[in-house]
Design a protein that fits this description.
- Helix content is about 50%, strand content about 10%.
- It contains 18 helices and 8 strands.
- The chain is globular and about 80 Å long.
- It folds into 3 domains: about 140 residues, no CATH class; about 140 residues, no CATH class; about 90 residues, no CATH class.
- The chain is α+β, with helices and mostly antiparallel strands.
- About 35% of the residues are buried.
- It is found in: Endomembrane system.
- It is a multi-pass membrane protein.
- It comes from Rufibacter radiotolerans.
């Protein structure tokens, strides 16, 4: 069975889809990075903040200062250009993956699903010979040219995209989304000014339609894209779906990345026509060796093992929330890296207090002395960031000469239309709590109805 699988994965197919995917990925990444730099976000997100919130286990990842961060983004842009052109491709792919992922690990405040998606795809790009067809590497060294590549080099991107969609659909199978049309019933009415569809967006039935269609779309679109007969209509649906999300929700480059990436499901003939069109734009002729180099060797065992591990992880990680008690949206334990896209409206306000255990005197913290506006917003609703901030305050007051400071927080959170209520135990000393992958017992249990306040910091 394993031998048959290996033979199937190693079967030669046209290299055109892989070359087009490389061009699309490089183009989208280059455009995104240039846009990011032009808007001043390098300075705003990775230079201006006084403190950062690294991911657990990656505390060693630090910003590189103003000059260092701008140089890192320039390196990232150059490596994206190298991927686009297929120039020094292996080095470009490795440098892009390392630089992009490093930046995303600096501060979880800036976490977005499509940043995670980019890192995952960039990792896979390192492993494939995407530079051996229609590339400057072939122009430099025509002996690299191949007409065919092993099937697995294209299947892995189709599978990764399919998993993104499918798990996004699974995540929508929750009562808030399907039975309450939350949070779309709150978000859509803000766009009634739009032409044509605007007057419909304050109708409750439209919110339900969007929710149910969104779940159906995510769960089924990988299969419709994989079937030749349904592929054209499925791709039209992809375009309409992502254009709507781009117009309604302003979620950056994600809709465009998905629209372009899903072209990898199309036939080799389609991609050959794309390359022919690009060749015409460049007014260039194909550069071939005297004969194409055969590239149908079996998938290396090490590569096959790595890919198997990669996709097992991709399957298991979205389900890790089952290891934790209580409502996932409330605790957010197991929320990230699971393709949960725009599923909740969660707002909050957090008040932090540092206490001198010797005198009992408490100092209320002005969060803006330490955090940016966006960091403060995230800290108020995400328990792991709330804990990191408490440790930051502990260390800051220790540095001022206060021994063993105690830190507590009153964080009031409203989620998906429910009234505001306390997120964590307001009397718990966060200074002594340790970060880990285990459940955080100081998060208060979620209740459908907000408990009634009885006294300061208490509920019943």
């Amino acid at each position: 069975m394993l031998r048959n699988l290996r033979t199937t994965l190693s079967a030669p197919v046209s290299a055109a889809p892989l070359a087009v995917f490389r061009i699309i990925f490089g183009m989208m990444m280059l455009g995104s990075i240039v846009r990011f730099m032009a808007k001043g976000w390098v300075q705003e997100l990775y230079v201006t903040p006084k403190y950062y919130f690294p991911f657990y286990g990656f505390e060693w990842v630090k910003p590189l200062g103003q000059t260092g961060m701008h140089l890192l983004f320039i390196l990232m842009a150059l490596s994206a250009l190298g991927i686009l052109l297929g120039l020094f491709y292996r080095w470009s792919a490795v440098l892009f993956f390392l630089s992009f992922t490093y930046v995303e690990l600096i501060d979880k405040t800036n976490y977005l699903n499509h940043y995670y998606f980019v890192s995952v795809v960039a990792l896979l790009m390192i492993m494939v010979p995407a530079h051996r067809h229609f590339s400057l590497d072939v122009l430099r060294n025509p002996s690299l040219w191949v007409k065919q590549v092993p099937r697995w080099t294209i299947l892995i991107f189709q599978l990764q995209l399919g998993m993104v969609y499918f798990f996004a659909g699974v995540a929508k199978l929750n009562p808030d989304w399907l039975l309450e049309a939350m949070p779309l019933r709150y978000w859509l009415p803000a766009h009634t000014h739009l032409p044509l569809i605007g007057p419909l967006l304050d109708k409750l039935w439209v919110a339900y339609l969007f929710c149910w269609f969104g779940a159906f779309y995510d769960l089924t679109i990988p299969f419709f894209l994989s079937w030749r007969k349904s592929r054209p209509l499925a791709y039209v649906t992809v375009v309409v779906f992502h254009v709507l999300t781009a117009v309604l929700f302003q979620i950056g480059m994600f809709p465009y990345i998905m629209m372009m990436s899903t072209l990898v499901f199309f036939s080799a003939d389609f991609h050959e026509k794309v390359l022919q069109f690009l060749r015409g734009l460049a007014r260039s002729k194909p550069v071939f060796a005297s004969a194409p180099v055969p590239y149908s060797k079996p998938i290396p065992g090490l590569v096959m093992g790595f890919l198997a591990l990669h996709f097992v992880v991709q399957v298991l990680v979205p389900w890790r929330f089952l290891l934790y008690p209580d409502n996932l949206f409330w605790t957010e334990q197991g929320y990230r890296f699971s393709w949960r896209v725009m599923l909740m409206e969660k707002t909050g306000t957090a008040f932090f207090y540092v206490r001198d255990p010797r005198t009992g005197q408490e100092t209320e913290i002005n969060n803006r002395d330490y955090l940016t506006v966006n960091q403060e917003k995230m800290v108020a609703t995400q328990p792991d960031m709330l804990l990191q901030y408490a440790h930051l305050l502990r260390d800051a007051f220790k540095a001022k000469g206060l021994p063993n400071p105690q830190v507590r927080a009153e964080a009031y959170v409203a989620m998906n239309g429910r009234g505001s209520r306390l997120l964590i135990d307001p009397q718990f000393n966060l200074a002594n709590a340790q970060e880990s992958f285990r459940h955080k017992p100081w998060i208060l249990p979620f209740a459908e109805k907000a408990p009634q306040p009885t006294a300061a910091g208490q509920t019943k």
